[in-house]
Amino acid sequence: MVYVDLNPIRACLAKTPEESDHTSIQQRIQASRQSSTHLFPFVGNPRKQIPQGIAFTLKDYIELVDWTGRIIRSDKRGAIPEHLPPIHNRLNQDAENWLYVKQNFESRFKKFVGAAHKIKKMCESLEYQRCVGLRTCADYFT
User: Fold this and answer.
1) Which residues does 101 contact at the CB level (< 8 Å), separation at least 6?
2) Per-residue pLDDT averaged across 123-130, rounded?
């Protein structure tokens, strides 16, 4: 998966995974902001009953792609530039917040997830009286 997700970077078509069009890494990053995806899910590292999915966390996979993409290879033209900050910083995601949100998603977010100002705008457009979860979104999303 990492090899395929890094193809646009290695071919100098993109500088970062989040800019790599038509890749699962870009789709997963976008889906993590919307809390929905049609891709095979990451299920972490289960110890007992193994659920259907990839035995890896999304956070770890995104970091693996970022680290691997920074390795300069003589047989490839492109790499993620070393001067760029780590991917979670580029996505404005604090690593601790990212982990907490992923582990507690269903219990903390009831209806909408995203930047608080966008949630507020959505609630207004839907003529909701209250914006459930607005404070939680403000705490965890920029």
Assistant:
1) 108, 109, 140
2) 86
